[in-house]
Amino acid sequence: MTTAIAPRSRKVRVLATLGPASNTPEMIATLFQAGADAFRINMSHGDQQSKVAVIQAIRGLEKQFQRPTTILADLQGPKLRVGKFEGGRTVLESGSTFVLDRDETPGDATRVELPHKEIFAAIEPGARLLLDDGKLVLRVTDHGPERIETMVEVGGALSNNKGLNVPDVVLPMAALTEKDRSDLAFAVEQGVDWIALSFVQRPEDLAEARKLIGGKAALLAKIEKPAAIDRLEEIVEMCDGVMVARGDLGVELPPQTVPPLQKRIVETSRRLGRPVVVATQMLESMIQSPSPTRAEVSDVATAIYDGADAIMLSAESAAGAWPVESVAMMNAIGISVEGDPMHGDRIHFTVTRPDPTTADALSEAAKQIARTVSATAIICFTTSGSTARRIARERPSVPLLVLTPSKDTARRLGLLWGTHAVHTRDVESFEDMVGKAKRMALRTGIAHAGDRVIVMAGVPFRTPGSTNVLHVVHITGDELRDYV
């Protein structure tokens, strides 16, 4: 039995992470109905084979609900860790000296192995080393090719293989590990729509992933390293989308600096026309509680007011006790915020000046015309999705219905603000374009008899990047009668 899901009544997208609490076909379908627009598969947990059934279940929604699905595979990236301790743990005293070296002998309160030679080559005196998600802080006082001497600024208990963060230097490490390369090849083979790259420090880190993807998926850069902030604009220009990974940013930087950085990353991504996802701890208390804190609701609302394309659930939907309620809450917050009369003004605090192209000029015009003639929707025909991204960048006040002959494009647009994508056959003529736009607007419920809609396309048809037509169409209601 198929049941078509109507376009969402909100424009911000909801990205839900799947995991032990939510990876059955029944639960995935329930999350989709509750408001999940896209699904994240975390490649850090579980083996590849266990994810095949999950991917198939997500794709199965397309037949069930007559709507493209969107899958993001999130690569683990390099994980920096210290070695083991005698007895499994030790305690570092504040003010004491602690050494990290290449000796595999179990450590104690004075030293431990650091199995990452790249750190020894890059570290500098004065740099901080953060242990166990920033709970312990070391300050480098001296270093050599086999030894890093530090002073313990913030001490505490430390156990085997705890994580290490190096926020103050750019590490000469590739963003892709051997595990990541294997996971990326698997994800591309399985036909996922987005690949999220961790540990991005510089634009060059995206090059290898881009080459390995080979155009078969879109590339999303996770901004989680301070070094990435220094070259943010270059990184955003080289990727297809961005994630504000606030968890690691909040470890490597003082937490009070993360909110303004979040706004800067969202603003840069929007200005350059890249979808941007705000992630991590958005409804953290809902891992165990059926309702969020008011502070968490305000945090999610802030991301929506800033104009983020998507808001993401992590453990809340992957491993929490209330996955459906978490998605439903994200959906409810989105509807409430976008219902605020001031929402439209606030999301346009970011100025998105058009590039000197016909597509950008028409996209900007479409937003203004929609408001002037009280259009119900903007409908665009696209092959690559570029036109849809340019229109969404303007944050129009009406929904965007995207008609594309490319199933891959339809699926990738699941992370794009305000977009409802439909995979459909291409058009052959101007008359065919107008007729199809009317019929699809009625079939999806995005417009009704008596409404005006704005149609955008490129002539000649089937030519990517040729957007040069903007047409205001009046829907009479008779269009479905002639549909074949």
UniProtKB/TrEMBL annotation:
<keyword id="KW-0460">Magnesium</keyword>
<dbReference type="Pfam" id="PF00224">
    <property type="entry name" value="PK"/>
</dbReference>
<keyword id="KW-0808">Transferase</keyword>
<feature type="domain" description="Pyruvate kinase C-terminal">
    <location>
        <begin position="360"/>
        <end position="473"/>
    </location>
</feature>
<dbReference type="Pfam" id="PF02887">
    <property type="entry name" value="PK_C"/>
</dbReference>
<keyword id="KW-0479">Metal-binding</keyword>
<dbReference type="GO" id="GO:0005524">
    <property type="term" value="F:ATP binding"/>
</dbReference>
<dbReference type="InterPro" id="IPR040442">
    <property type="entry name" value="Pyrv_kinase-like_dom_sf"/>
</dbReference>
<keyword id="KW-0067">ATP-binding</keyword>
<keyword id="KW-0547">Nucleotide-binding</keyword>
<comment type="similarity">
    <text>Belongs to the pyruvate kinase family.</text>
</comment>
<keyword id="KW-0324">Glycolysis</keyword>
<dbReference type="InterPro" id="IPR001697">
    <property type="entry name" value="Pyr_Knase"/>
</dbReference>
<dbReference type="InterPro" id="IPR011037">
    <property type="entry name" value="Pyrv_Knase-like_insert_dom_sf"/>
</dbReference>
<keyword id="KW-0670">Pyruvate</keyword>
<keyword id="KW-0418">Kinase</keyword>
<dbReference type="InterPro" id="IPR015813">
    <property type="entry name" value="Pyrv/PenolPyrv_kinase-like_dom"/>
</dbReference>
<protein>
    <recommendedName>
        <fullName>Pyruvate kinase</fullName>
        <ecNumber>2.7.1.40</ecNumber>
    </recommendedName>
</protein>
<dbReference type="GO" id="GO:0016301">
    <property type="term" value="F:kinase activity"/>
</dbReference>
<dbReference type="InterPro" id="IPR015793">
    <property type="entry name" value="Pyrv_Knase_brl"/>
</dbReference>
<dbReference type="InterPro" id="IPR036918">
    <property type="entry name" value="Pyrv_Knase_C_sf"/>
</dbReference>
<dbReference type="GO" id="GO:0030955">
    <property type="term" value="F:potassium ion binding"/>
</dbReference>
<dbReference type="GO" id="GO:0004743">
    <property type="term" value="F:pyruvate kinase activity"/>
</dbReference>
<feature type="domain" description="Pyruvate kinase barrel">
    <location>
        <begin position="10"/>
        <end position="327"/>
    </location>
</feature>
<dbReference type="GO" id="GO:0000287">
    <property type="term" value="F:magnesium ion binding"/>
</dbReference>
<dbReference type="InterPro" id="IPR015795">
    <property type="entry name" value="Pyrv_Knase_C"/>
</dbReference>
<comment type="pathway">
    <text>Carbohydrate degradation; glycolysis; pyruvate from D-glyceraldehyde 3-phosphate: step 5/5.</text>
</comment>
<dbReference type="InterPro" id="IPR015806">
    <property type="entry name" value="Pyrv_Knase_insert_dom_sf"/>
</dbReference>
